[in-house]
Amino acid sequence: MAVAGTKKVTISMSEELLAFADLMAKKTGSTRSSFISSVLNEVQEQELERLASEGYRYYGSEAQEFATVSGCAVAEAIDDEYR
């Protein structure tokens, strides 16, 4: 029975890979479809994490540059406020 929000698809793979998927599904107590879906979910999570890290690295350096450039103005404003 299909889970809500899922689609049934037909895929092609080697017999060796299919046998491995069946073995792992049996070991984990799941179905072939469930096992393949869980592996794809893990790969998707890894890719999203990689993209997020890449974005943090890019925007992190940009934020650091902005902080350096604006630091003097902020310090001056704070200094004026407490005089």
Structure description:
The protein is rod-shaped and about 70 Å long. The model has no long low-confidence stretch (mean pLDDT 85). It has one domain (22-81). The chain has helices at 15-28, 32-81. Helices cover 77% and strands 0% of the residues. With 83 residues, the chain is an all-alpha fold. It has 2 helices and no strands. α1 packs across α2 (32-81).
Overall form: rod-shaped
- Domain count, please report it: 1
What is the average of the pLDDT values?
Answer: 85
Total strand count, please? Answer: 0
Distance between the termini: 72 Å
**What structural class should be given to the helix and strand makeup?**
mainly alpha
The low-pLDDT segments are none
Instruction: Name the beta content range.
Output: under 5%
Overall helicity: over 70%
Assembly state of the chains shown: single chain
Helical run tally? 2
The major pleated sheet works out as: none
